[in-house]
Amino acid sequence: MKSNFTISKKDKESIYIIIPAYNEGKRVEKVLNEVANLGYKIIVVDDGSTDDTLNILYKIQKDFPNNIYVLHHIVNRGAGAATITGLDAALMRNPKYVVTFDGDGQHDSQDIEKVCEPLINKRADAVIGARPFDDMPKSKKFANVVMTMLTEFFYDVKVKDSQTGFRAFTVDAARKLNIDAQGYIISSEFIKEIHRNHLKMEEVTIKTIYTDETQKKGTNAIVGIKIMLRMIKQKFES
Description:
This protein is α/β, with parallel strands linked by helices.
């Protein structure tokens, strides 16, 4: 059933979308145009790209000077570090809600409304945009299923999709998060912090747009092993 919920213009102005971007020169312009045209504020973080990503970001910023803020890492530090940079910058602007959103075109900008609805209607402090695994290409499905199982095992939190890059938080919830991940383990650490801070969480199903480019990024077997080793280290240190 289609929801009748619509985000008001006032609420849209209080929502900051955090978009990390690394070598997304072929895709990020479309992503930013779609999100900005919906009326949201955007903080996009170029994570030391070696292609023309940064130039494209500055070009689009000129079209949306009141909606898009561009930050830049001199060197590539990882998806986690770029997300944290964006989150810190957003919190300095006193938003009501913050959303993390991938820059490679895999998310549907229309789903931002769906992900924010539980926050605006005060049912949740945090929302996870869950990708349907049945629709996920086999090259991605195995690693993501395993990582979701490991997240439940190590962090004692059961979610449908622990590795999604699409999440939303109230500003109060976001300020409680204590995350220092540099790479893709940030996805599991968001889940851990939601649980540690006893935040009310909802999961909503989101649309995912799979292309050859999006399938090359994110959690694969090698990334999964690195994340698992960090989880084991955290388990013994706690």
